[in-house]
Amino acid sequence: MRILLLTPGTGNFHCGSCLHDETLVRGLREMGHDASISALYLPLVLDREDGQIDGDSVQMGGINMYLQSKSALFRHAPGFVEKMLDHPNLLRKAADRADLTSPQELGRMTEQMLLGEHGKTQHEIERLLEHLRGHDTPDIVLLNNALLLGLAEPIKAVLGCAVACTLQGEDTFIDDLPDPWRGQVWQLLADKVKDIDLFLPVSAFHGDLMAERMAIPQEKLSVVYNGIEAEHYPAQTQAPDPPVIGFLARLCPTKGLHNLVDAYIKMHERGTLGDARLLLVGAATPKNKQYTEQLRQKLQSAGIGDRVTVKHNVSFDEKIAALQRMSVLSVPATYGESFGLYVLEANACGIPAVVPDHAGLAEAIDQTAGGILYEPGGDHAGALADALTSLLADEPKRRALGKAGRSAVLDRFTADQMARQVADALESVCQAPSP
Q1: CATH class (in words) of the domain with range 231-412
Q2: Do 2-227+415-431 and 231-412 share a fold?
Q3: Domain-by-domain residue ranges, the chain?
Q4: What is the pTM of this model?
Q5: Which of 99, 153, 341, 367 is most buried (CB neighbours < 10 A)?
Q6: Is there a contact between 8 and 148 (Cβ–Cβ < 8 Å)?
Q7: Are 243 and 326 in contact (CB under 8 A)?
Q8: Which DSSP letter does residue 83 get?
Q9: In this structure, are residues 247 and 365 in contact, taking their beta carbons and an 8 Å threshold?
Q10: CA–CA gap between residue 111 and residue 101 (Å, rounded)
Q11: Does the structural domain 2-227+415-431 have CATH classification 3.40.50.2000?
């Protein structure tokens, strides 16, 4: 089966959906499928450097898309200008400004993208279609997320193939759009459901949420959980001494890093911290680094700044090394995670997770039994401090949770299983008779 995955890219940081896509394509290729991935707006930032996925080239550059959605002048720019604006280095610099990934700046562009060939970014879509015509026609195109649904109708018209779509975290971005774009985007998404043959949510929670908000029929939904290349996540052989509370996600407010810092300070103030250290690891834009530095200064003012280590934009090997140093992982996200890939990564190394009891995180812990949930409520930091204190004081429980989590990942959350389930779902669509 020839499968083309279209993904937005990020330009300057790792994101969970990018890692999902990279891992999925690797798995599909290992199964013998002709799978490829193309970045649309920004270059891909890949977790590993030993793959064959081109992370640099883009097909619908984010700068061109942004400018064309705002001004008719740029819809008629000569080809050399378009090509210049699509240069990977320029796109990365633009991404550093955050405007190309910030919901507050992308309402109009998101709306125009969903309008497809009827919108103001029609020229960029035509450029993408021209590129796709020059290659072997895929049996199916898989869109990274629902914000790309505007591509489905023109792709079907030009290539005549099926189109599927992964669902992974779109709701938070859309709900952060300013008025009037928020309501218009949700309505456009509902209108475009008819153009998609199958939706693949990464959790039952997120599938139900998006089905309700987009009016997706149940027969068009097939849940496929995230998977990781578990063979690259060795089990921790020795518990860290002193213990280490770890964080592994994008170093930004929505991942709740400030909640973890506040909980760490609260444990210190209560006298329950002991000699536990704090290890903060993850992707970071320049704006995220400013946020992280503010938190570091807060820890310094509390008298525990020397216990904290921060690592930005680590390589895959550095990420594995960081996981091996953790006693427990906590990512106290402030929004409804569609699943929480970091739970699988920690569990694969035998490290339990402590996460808030909501959204896809609750489902992840329920599926892996590799951690504990706490009720964020009104005193988020206090509830998290209680949960961390309890688990750090109970080494047998930590070991048992870590063992259960690793067993679950190896049994049900591998890249091979994710790829196999996605392939089976896509094949059912490709083999279905045309309506």
Answers
A1: alpha beta
A2: yes
A3: 2-227+415-431, 231-412
A4: 0.91
A5: 341
A6: yes
A7: no
A8: H
A9: no
A10: 14
A11: yes
Query: Which residues, 6 or more positions from 400, have their beta carbon under 8 angstroms from its beta carbon?
Result: none
Residues in Cβ contact with 46 at an 8 Å cutoff, skipping those fewer than 6 apart: 14, 18, 22, 53, 55
Cβ(362)–Cβ(336) below 8 Å: no
Q: How many whole angstroms separate alpha carbon 280 and alpha carbon 296?
A: 10
Please, are residues 264 and 278 in contact by the beta-carbon 8 Å criterion? yes
* 241-250, 268-277, 284-293, 328-337: range with lowest mean pLDDT: 284-293
Task: Name which residue leads in pLDDT, 73 or 359.
Answer: 359
Asked if 173 contacts 113 with a C-beta cutoff of 8 angstroms, the reply is: no
Residues 338/360, Cβ–Cβ less than 8 Å: yes
Closest CA relative to residue 42, chosen from 22, 65, 20: 65
CA–CA–CA angle 22, 24, 26 (5° rounding): 70
pLDDT tens figures, 172-221: 999 999 999 999 999 999 999 999 999 999 999 999 999 999 999 999 99
- Average predicted confidence (pLDDT) for the chain: 90
Q: Name the amino acid, one letter, at 360.
A: G
pLDDT at 235: 97
Cα–Cα distance list, 85 to 65, 106, 188, 254 (Å): 10, 18, 28, 30
Query: Is the pLDDT confidence value at 234 over 60?
Result: yes
The amino acid that residue 234 corresponds to is: P
Per-residue pLDDT band at 99 (split at 50, 70, 90):
very low
**pLDDT score of 12:** 54
Left (φ > 0), alpha (ψ -120 to 50) or beta: where does 198 sit? beta
Structure-derived torsion over alpha carbons of residues 394, 374, 388, 327, reported in degrees to the nearest 10:
80
What residues are paired with 383 via a beta bridge?
none
